[in-house]
Amino acid sequence: MKPQVYIYTDGSSRGNPGPGGYGIVMEWVGKPYVKEFSQGYRKTTNNRMELLAVIVALEQLKKDATKVKVFTDSKYVVDAVEKSWVFGWEKKGFKDKKNPDLWKLFLKIYRKHEVSFQWIKGHNNHKQNERCDFLAVESSKKTNLLVDEYYERLNNGTLFDS
User: Fold this and answer.
1) At a CB cut-off of 8 Å and minimum separation 6, what does 154 contact?
2) 162-to-55, 125, 128, 132 alpha-carbon distances in Å
3) Of 49, 113, 133, 146, which has the fewest Cβ atoms less than 10 A away?
């Protein structure tokens, strides 16, 4: 039986764009194993943080072909994958799509595992989702925020999103 991991994620930005962050809770099914991750960025968007949270969580998995269930309140992420939109975007080179840098990175790590998604309603007293939201918001308030380089270069006109 393959190991199974539950991943809970949330992203936020205070302003859109604005300071933002992500929060992650990872649980190994059937074991008392829980890990948390979070990081803040000085200028980003909510959707970028929602997607980045999933990417970072999947990157934490040490073995390929891990069975993973991702719980997120992001319809943007869930629908893009579960409705196969992202695969169509990929075939068209992500032309006119937002966040192509993150979607390309997502697909690379996504294909290493057996990943399914489940949308959960945000701010609905779901224990892990509430914890992820707290981690995301708190990380966006820190003083030593990282630079979301792709986003900032794109929006300062030094990078063309082609």
Assistant:
1) 160, 161
2) 22, 40, 37, 32
3) 146
Burial bucket for residue 128 (CB in 10 Å: 0-12, 13-18, 19+): buried
Residues 71-85: pLDDT tens digits?
A: 999 999 999 999 999
Per-residue pLDDT of 78-130, as tens digits, reads 999 999 999 999 999 999 999 999 999 999 999 999 999 999 998 888 999 99
**Could you give the residue numbers annotated as active site?**
10-11, 50, 73, 123, 133
User: Is residue 71 a contact partner of residue 54, using CB atoms and an 8 Å limit?
Assistant: no
Q: Give the span between the Cα atoms of 10 and 161, in whole angstroms.
A: 25
CA separation for the pair 73, 95 (Å, rounded)? 26
Query: Residue 162 pLDDT > 50, yes or no?
Result: no
Measured over the CA atoms of residue 141, residue 21, residue 139 and residue 159, the dihedral's sign is negative
Give the whole-angstrom CA distance, residue 125 versus residue 108. 33
Go through 4-41 and write b for each residue having 16 or more CB atoms within 10 A of its CB, e for each that does not: ebbbbbbbbbeeebebbbbbbbbbeeeeeeeeebbbbb
The tokens for 37 are: 């991750």
The DSSP letter of residue 146 is B
